[in-house]
Write a structure and sequence with these properties.
Layout (H helix, E strand, L loop, with lengths): L1 H8 L9 E5 L5 E2 L4 E5 L2 H4 L10 H9 L7 E3 L6 H19 L1 H21 L19 H18 L1 H15 L2 E3 L1 H12 L4 H8 L6 E9 L4 E8 L8 E8 L6 E7 L3 E7 L6 E4 L8 E6 L1
Helix pairs in contact: 3-4, 4-5, 4-6, 5-6, 6-7, 6-9, 7-8
């Protein structure tokens, strides 16, 4: 299934065959081109990302590497997210395709927690390294999990159709060759018609993640929800598009979108009744450490 999904969504497989080899002496998997090696116990013990099905996440991850990491290989170790971040996100995309959105979202939330926990200890780590002196830091949770989240947010920014068009253009241009983060950005800009320089700068070349603290209240006289948000992370504010979920009694979740490009912002939304819930990022679209309470 994974081979078919990646071939249809990304482009043709580059090799004559794919062998999956169980081997002794190591754990996890290694994505040799056309021949993936797995630790002898890894298939049964590795649960994958957010899955109960043993081995699914590991196998899909290593198969995704046949496209990203093997066929399209990063030009420099500084751009290793083009391999590991891609394989991590495309594993989740396959999970979404095969098992549904709930398991996809569970994987995203697990990844987001990993990123937030990492940045508590290493707040300045950047996904695109720019000539690390300590090569032990080349791969980390950030190249895997934050790299994956960058692709997820890019998909939201571009829209599904343009995102997939960009992925196919990038793969077609650099298949069986070497690419950089700039090469990837230019392909996605061509597919979307957007200037993505700022997006790439804040998510890949800057360390940390945004922390958004907020409060909300219902103004019964004006029939409005009043929302106040503040970016609390160190440094300059991120440019964010934040979704707000509002649920009124007897009504379905309604999603509003606000742009938070400064340190703080105050927003209002119509609400005929007092909401039962107001939440940040209800559809799991943004890599943010978000906290929203009622005032």
């Amino acid at each position: 299934q994974a081979m078919e999904f990646f071939s249809e969504q990304i482009g043709p497989y580059s090799y004559e065959k794919l062998a999956n080899v169980e081997a002794a002496g190591f754990g996890g998997g290694t994505e040799h081109a056309s021949a993936i090696f797995y630790g002898e116990n890894s298939i049964l013990t590795n649960p994958g990302t957010g899955l109960i099905r043993p081995g699914t996440g590991l196998i899909a991850h290593e198969i995704a590497h046949q496209w990203f990491g093997n066929s399209v290989t990063e030009k420099d170790w500084d751009d290793v997210w083009l391999s590991e971040g891609f394989a991590t996100y495309f594993t989740l995309l396959f999970i979404e395709h095969a098992y549904g959105r709930d398991e996809f979202v569970a994987g995203l939330r697990d990844s987001r927690k990993t990123v937030l926990d990492f940045y508590l200890k290493t707040p300045d780590y950047r996904v695109v390294h720019q000539n690390l002196t300590d090569m032990a830091q080349v791969t980390s949770a950030m190249t895997y999990q934050k790299g994956s989240w960058v692709l997820h947010m890019l998909r939201q920014t571009m829209g599904d159709d343009r995102f997939w068009a960009g992925i196919r253009e990038y793969y077609s241009r650099w298949q069986d060759s070497n690419a950089s983060t700039t090469d990837f950005r230019l392909a996605m800009e061509h597919a979307s018609g957007l200037d993505l320089t700022g997006f790439f700068q804040q998510w890949l070349y800057r360390g940390g993640v945004p922390r958004v603290d907020g409060t909300w209240q219902w103004d019964a006289t004006a029939k409005q929800v009043i929302l106040e948000l503040r970016q609390a992370q160190p440094g300059e504010p991120f440019r964010l598009s934040v979704e707000i979920g509002i649920t009124e009694p007897g009504a379905r979740l309604r999603v509003e979108r606000v742009d938070l490009s400064g340190q703080s912002g105050r927003f209002s939304f119509p609400a005929a009744q007092e909401p039962t819930a107001v939440e940040l990022d209800p559809n799991t679209r943004l890599l943010v450490d978000g906290h929203l309470i009622r005032r």
